[in-house]
Amino acid sequence: MRRLLLVVLALLIPMSAISAPAADLSSLSLGVAPFEANAPPGARVPDVATLLADRLGTLGLENVVGPQALNASSQPDVSAELVRGWAAKAKVDAIVVGRTTRIGDQLSVDVRVRSGATGDTVKTLVRRVTNPADLAASVDALANDVLAAARPLAEPPQLPAAAAKRSSNKRKTPFGFKGWDSDRPMSIQSESLDALREGGKRRMIFTGKVKVIQGNLTIRCDRLVAFYPADTNQPDRLTCSGNVRLQQGDQKARCEEVVYDRAADLLTCQGNAVFEEDGNELHGALIEIDLAAETMRVTGGARVLIRSGEKKRKLQQGGDR
């Protein structure tokens, strides 16, 4: 019974190796339709489509439209015309359809990647899950196989008008991450992953050598929790803890915990927070970095260390402070 609940709810599913796509996927958009569920009477089938969409949403794609928002049927054998219609309405390059079949304690996941432009099947993928604990690992591998099949369908990358305007009107501030492009997709890598679903709320917990990349911003930490709103398959808030390090070009920050509010473009670093730029340091109990405005607010014992040119050279060469 315990094993069945783990499969049905996708609760705290361990993953031994979280892989990541090798190429830039920032111009690729995917839609994931609800998967057809086949099982004996009384047996349950996990929502693999939502798990797949959630994982795709952390792999650097431009956009992922999941089963709740795509408004598509759960029948994988649909016409090319219907697939084209789904893709056009969702503005995606490809549609992923599938079927999950329960055979005893095992699952068979049959997925098809279909072109949004033609509706044709580009690739058929089959994954067998022999152990409930292997579900997350299978979904992770499936996500990367889907990306490999769909990558040629992506439109050539273009700089959004808002980003182009920002890049042509950058400003220099004393402290703060500069040149932020909020339109860039986000990619998360780690050694293991747990998926948690409670009352419609979804979270993914990444642990072990976590690395987040969004545009020119990189965040590293020991543990990261990604929170998913009900209407999307991309996280809107991240909480990172344990050896937190942030970097954007030659600007760096470190703290005990950082909360990244993606909707507000706000990074909140708390617990012995330090911001470093050009050899100078800004310390405080809490540092709020507004990525869009390129401004910073420090509270709790704020102090600034301004170093001379000679001291900076020693620091850059690894000398004592």
Brief digest:
The protein is α+β, with helices and mostly antiparallel strands. It is built from seven helices and 16 strands.
Provide the descriptors you would attach to this structure in a database record:
ten-stranded antiparallel beta sheet, alpha+beta, 20% helix, elongated, six-stranded mixed beta sheet, disordered C terminus, disordered N terminus, single chain, lipopolysaccharide transport protein A fold, Rossmann fold, 321 residues, 2 domains
Question: Your description of this structure?
Answer:
By secondary structure, the chain is of the alpha+beta class. It folds into two domains: 2-153, Rossmann fold (3-Layer(aba) Sandwich), CATH 3.40.50.10070; 169-316, Lipopolysaccharide (LPS) transport protein A like domain (lipopolysaccharide transport protein A fold). The protein contains seven helices and 16 strands. The strands form two sheets. Strands 7, 8, 9, 10, 11, 12, 13, 14, 15 and 16 form a ten-stranded antiparallel β-sheet that branches. The chain is elongated and about 70 Å long.
